[in-house]
């Protein structure tokens, strides 16, 4: 075989080699958590967490641009640290968790910054509405886990900001800020048998719900601050 033919052969094999280095991981729902914060009437940033996210990650640390992520987040497990606030947050005029118990993020492109940082852009579906969102992602570690069963594990931190109005969550604008800061801490375990989460189930022929134009008249009132008697929403 002459040198020219050998060069063509090696060039043809390169894409196959690169694909072989991409590994499939599954999210560890125990060590993956979403933290969100939103302004509470100008007094503070209300904090909530969501645990139990599941999904898959196809990842090659040497080629971030080939990464693919598909994650399902159990919105109905949102926890603000108080049962009354949890109930109000999951109600129909806010997260509407009964009709939309899960959010889903599916990556569409990854833009590497350096060996441990990248911007991951994808489609976020929340409350039946889909919008493009970009996560600023940091790779914290990629190594063999020190505890049994000693599987190769990837650890990530990510942040982003969304507007709740973009997803039709418009109730109580004078009490709840529009900007929602999101922080994600995630661990993913290498598993060639991992399966992606099932897509959201919609009735036949149904389209994702459009954002409501006005707050429903029957919307429940958020619980008052501790020590404050119940009452209507204060005027700004």
Provide a descriptive summary of the structure in words.
It is a single chain. The protein has a domain of 157 residues: Lipocalin. 11% of the residues lie in helices and 42% in strands. It is built from 2 helices and 10 strands, in the order H-E-E-E-E-E-H-E-E-E-E-E. An 8-stranded antiparallel β-barrel has the order 1-4-5-6-7-8-9-10. Strand 2 and strand 3 form a beta hairpin. The longest helix has 18 residues. The protein is globular, with a radius of gyration of 22 Å.
CATH topology of the domain at 34-190: Lipocalin
By CATH's scheme, which homologous superfamily of the domain at 34-190 applies? Lipid/polyisoprenoid-binding, YceI-like
Terminal CA distance: 81 Å
Average pLDDT, to the nearest integer? Answer: 82
Give the SSE string.
HEEEEEHEEEEE
The main pleated sheet reads as: 8 strands, antiparallel, barrel
Helix content: 10-25%
Strand order of the largest sheet: 1-4-5-6-7-8-9-10
Given the helix and strand composition, which structural class is it? mainly beta
Number of helices: 2
Low-confidence stretches: 3-20, 194-198, 205-236
The radius of gyration over CA amounts to 22 Å
CATH architecture of the domain at 34-190: Beta Barrel
Quick structural gist:
The chain has 2 helices and 10 strands; from the N terminus they run αβββββαβββββ.
């Amino acid at each position: 075989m002459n040198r020219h033919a050998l060069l063509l052969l090696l060039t043809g094999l390169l894409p196959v080699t690169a694909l072989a280095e991409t590994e499939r991981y599954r999210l560890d729902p125990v060590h993956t958590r979403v933290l969100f914060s939103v302004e509470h009437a100008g007094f503070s940033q209300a904090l909530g967490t969501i645990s139990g996210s599941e999904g898959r990650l196809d990842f090659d640390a040497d080629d971030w641009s080939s990464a693919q992520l598909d994650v399902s987040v159990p919105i109905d497990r949102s926890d603000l640290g108080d049962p009354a606030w949890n109930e109000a947050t999951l109600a129909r005029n806010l997260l509407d968790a009964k009709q939309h118990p899960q959010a889903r993020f599916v990556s569409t492109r990854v833009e590497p910054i350096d060996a441990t940082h990248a911007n991951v852009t994808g489609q976020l579906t929340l409350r039946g509405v889909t919008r493009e969102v970009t996560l600023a992602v940091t790779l914290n570690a990629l190594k063999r886990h020190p505890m049994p069963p000693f599987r190769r594990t990837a650890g990530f931190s990510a942040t982003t900001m969304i507007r709740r109005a973009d997803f039709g969550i418009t109730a109580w604008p004078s009490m709840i800020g529009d900007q929602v800061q999101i922080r994600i801490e995630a661990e993913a375990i290498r598993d060639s048998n991992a399966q992606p989460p099932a897509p959201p189930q919609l009735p036949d022929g149904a389209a994702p719900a459009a954002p409501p134009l006005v707050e429903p008249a029957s919307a429940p009132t958020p619980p008052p601050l501790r020590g404050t008697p119940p009452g209507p929403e204060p005027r700004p």
